[in-house]
Design goal:
By secondary structure, the chain is of the alpha+beta class. Helices cover about 30% and strands about 30% of the residues.
Amino acid sequence: MNTTPNPLPETTSVVIVGAGPAGLTAAVTLAAADVDFVLLDRLAEGANTSRAAVVHARTLEVLHELGIAEELIAEGLVVPTFTLHDGGRTLATLRFDGLPTRYPYTLMVPQDTTEAVLLAALRKAGGDVHRPYLVTRVVEENDGVTVEYTDAAGDAGTLRADYVIGTDGMHSVVREQAGIGFTGAAYPASFVLADVRMNWPIPREEVSLYLSPEGITVIAPLPDPAEPNRYRVVATVDTAPEHPTRADIQTILDARGPGGDVEVSAVLWSSRFRVHHRVADRYRAGRVLLAGDAAHVHSPAGGQGMNTGIQDAATLGPLLAMVVAGEPESLLDSYETIRRPIALDVVAFTDRMTRMATLTSRPARSLRNLVIATLTRVPAVRRSLTYRLAELGNR
């Protein structure tokens, strides 16, 4: 458990609320710029489950600039290929190894590992996370921001800051307190998320996406020396159980997978969740700014969520450091100008992928498969898709 560094100061330059990947990234960038900050999180300890497990090339480039990409790569599994299937038929094979980047692949690494690497970098720079602190109120007043909170004992306190960054997730207290809308909707289906041990006929150098009338299914290998046959399964279902069982996952793969010798021998961890596609109406309200899931949420198709959030924070941190150092506050307006269009694009892209993948009528599916198989035979189309999935356009 990450014990709380006590006590909190009464004032600081920046308060970051939420110590997920985006919050930790923001803290690392501020620590590198020698900005005084406090990072608060409502949980008593950091992530201990795999959750988001895909790190794309552009995110690795950003983490390289922070000096931690190589450490993360050492903990992960390099996967250079993405394949698209309908049952046993392969519709498209996309390879990342020709992309113009030092990281021409997808890195599979569990979110708890990503957070651990970011936290180690933060501590090396002299920072840490204060836990558990539940932020209850955020109000801009008297040329600053007052943050009210309760600690683990239930005692109330306040903290004054020049700026607040909300990286506290889809149900962001910071966003709500700032009066920023979160426009969008929820998908009707629920999602199954599971890490399993299984026999899988496709090489571990591939992430596979399966289209079927029953829903979308993604299978990706996960690094684990103790579990060499560990895979991540993400699938849409009409109504998911709270903790999907081995039989649940086996049923999904039997109906949607490639056929043949697919056997799930154990569920190592599982969950269910509802997916929304939403973007904050603004990324800034005065001295309050948003990043990560507090600013945008979307379908897991393509594995874009955590990556976009880390890139948000890596853009915001240096801008905020310059303003704290005396540069014009108008610099912060450029953060929304840069990052919000990217989030809108990601939400639209993943929404199209999800709706395309979950077509149910036979004529529509047949036409979709024909279009995908035909277009992806064109090298320029394959290159464009891999470039998009790797988020290299976000440079």
